[in-house]
Protein 1
Amino acid sequence: MTSNDDHHLPPRPMKDSQSQMAEVVLPNDANPLGNLLGGRLMHLIDIAGALAAHRHSRSYVVTASMDHIDFLAPVHIGDLLILKSSVNRAFTSSMEIGVKCWVENYIAATTRHVGSAYLTFVAVDQNGHHHPVPHVIPETPDEKRRYEDAGRRRELRKHEQERRRNKIG
Ligand SMILES: CC(C)(COP(=O)(O)OP(=O)(O)OC[C@H]1O[C@@H](n2cnc3c(N)ncnc32)[C@H](O)[C@@H]1OP(=O)(O)O)[C@@H](O)C(=O)NCCC(=O)NCCS
């Protein structure tokens, strides 16, 4: 496979991958207390993340991992859930995508942050073989910070994978 440093795909601005999903929470998505199920939120995060990964790579993608996730506040039946996603950085065939979830109170015109996650998606062809993706161009100070942070998180992930491999082996 070609390395990210020597492939010739034109780099793409981070903002071009930005995606948004909106979902009204229905009874079928909730536990007996009327709160959105954590697994359902993770499912929506996966889909919102895939949108940004597809847009950046213009390719099929698979989810390789989802980092730690905190459910910061309950989401209730009837709430309007907003999920925003963007690529933070692309490596060789993988991309870190950040997803942030909000509940929008459309009566009071307020929003509440209910959870965030970082996911790694890998670009694959129709046979499931991974292939290179374009570099990301961060433009604003906030995008540059996210880009740098994503590099640090990739190193941490690699260390953690290595540690688990040694523990299992
Ligand atoms: C993800 C997958 C394509 C990686 O394939 P692989 O042959 O093991 O690939 P490699 O070890 O060579 O790694 C390829 C890339 O994936 C990344 N990767 C692999 N496993 C990873 C993990 N657990 N977390 C984060 N990144 C991972 C590598 O860092 C590498 O990134 P880079 O090319 O940017 O350096 C493969 O394991 C797979 O298909 N898994 C199943 C995915 C799936 O079904 N997801 C749920 C449904 S969408």
Note: The first strand starts at residue 12 and ends at 13.
Protein 2
Amino acid sequence: MQSSMSSMSSGGRVWPNQESIRYLCPPDDGAPDMAGWQSPPVTPFKDPLYIPPVARPDAGAPTPPPEPDRHQLYQEYPPAVFHTVREREFQWQFHSDYGAVTWVWGIDGASPGPTYHARYGEPMLVRRYNELPPVEYANVGFALPSTTTHLHNGHVASESDGFPTDWIGGGEFWDHHYPNFPATNADPMTGARVPDEREKLTTLWYHDHRMDSTAANVYAGLFGMFLLFDERDSGDENDPDPAAWRLPSGEFDVPLILQDIAFDSDRQLAFDGFMTHGLLGDRFTVNRIIQPHFKVKRRKYRFRILNAAPSRFFEVFLNRSEEPADDDFVRFVVVSGDGNLNPEPVEAPSLYLGVAQRVDVIIDFSKFSSGDSLYLENRLDQYEGHGPSGRHLTDPDQIRAHRLLRFDVVGDEVDDPSRIPDFFRQYPPVDIASAKRERIWRFDYDGGLWTINGMPMDADRIDAGIEIDSAEIWTYRNDGITWSHPVHSHLSEWLVLAVNGVPMLPDMVQINPAVRDLSDFQRVFTKTHSDGRDYVMGSNVLRGPWCGGLRRDVANLGPLDEVTVFSRWPDFLGPYVLHCHNIVHEDRSMMIRWDVVPAGADFDGSRSVEDVYGTMPLPMHGEPRPSQATMQPGSQPFNPGVSRARAGGPTPGDSQPGSTMSSTMMQGGMS
Ligand SMILES: [Cu+2]
């Protein structure tokens, strides 16, 4: 692999040097952000952490029944589990000092929406109803009640993937078929395509992906977690199967969804659609509660940490000290990066999370005493929407304001059947020789638009035709000197081959003890600024792989960064997207459409949909949408009067979890 790297380097490219380092600070012409925004004050760590409910399956298939012909591989993976969910508007309590007054959008009365517990070998069908109010009746005035839901990192057919123009309006539904099988690979003996265990995923999330309105709709609250289990990561810490890893499970497997939010004086979500560089908030929320506390028992927990912010990057530390000046950091045991369990657990002093990135960590609270408190805190300085400054926060008041969550250790040490295994699965193999093409994607800012290869998003233009079951090498390059882009591509994640020309080898990150310590790793990549301070170049990407492994679905491109990856696209045909996951950039056109096409139909460069599909049927998307064809008998189009009454408080007999967050929905871990 190493020898191939030199041929992939972009000849003549100059890596960031002293001259460019100074531009890590945005120039004076940077558009104003919400850095000076002041949300109404709250008392931090007053409210308990909210834990989104686990989605409960329906008793059976929905009515009208799903239409198998609309889905690829439906017959091969017929749904065994059905969910019906409803997107609605309601009021949410971000903090008890605010009250349940903030209008949000969510799923089944929750924001974040319910957490799916899916299993490999159990295909699912999620019927999603859009029951959001029309624009003229909505209290969330900035978002668009026209929705499409992407399962981030899902190995999912195009028609279920939440393609940006596959939106539905109020009263309509869309069926998402989640087959829950790992990507296939060719059996080395027979050549037959078989699901590859090494392709299994663990921590995914879902979120709205509406063309041009993703930032608004996600900010409004249309997102949640999607966890995948199997016989090894079984979700049962008491699993008697000797092959099971027995990671902390049940109430000890906790999603922590990070989001910064700005509130106006009426305690409503503040959103500025004219802010094209990015959206920053001054209130830090975990699971949509401002700076909560979480009572923990003296044992191990698995935390699924997700950056669901529109534009903010996080670097998360665990601090035993209440005083920022007396930092006493505790290392995390990192078991995953994005959706993947890593080959083995590693210790990390901090967690670097670009937008949409995930990391699973194990924290063992048995080594602390009852009455101890630990702070989960973000130390990354970011005062512009388009990317972090490259510095850590140093001001104690700022550090306190950037604290995310306080863990309160309670009780005696308890029995802990959970384990941290020595190893997980190995990564899927990288066969460079099998790569059929190389493509370069340049991220830039042209003529007031965020662009990829100089082009704004056009759903009628296909910018890559990828042959099904093939592999390619892609290079993501940030041509900007002041902004960062967390780049995400759908359907297939990748294995990172090189960062800024430096080959990234799995053992370099995961096994070689010489770079297990952060200080050793930084020595390679730290450069000294002329003011005498050290800056970690491209810290986004370089520390990202280190603490999260090389198998990722988001590549953080810092200023002038370049990341080269290997990827494969088996199993599904049709349109998908590559985009910046600073969702403000995505909405301002930093996205391209690529299609998986039949063997022999692949191509370089951009072609029109008509040109590509003129002679072949467009998989699924060319057919009438389910929403146009059918509505559930008896279901009514949206009635604003009913919804407003509903939104004012739980309706007696309402089977939904509740339109306002009631005290029973608040869980502090232990009551
Ligand atoms: Cu971007």
Note: Residues 539-548 form the longest helix (10 residues).
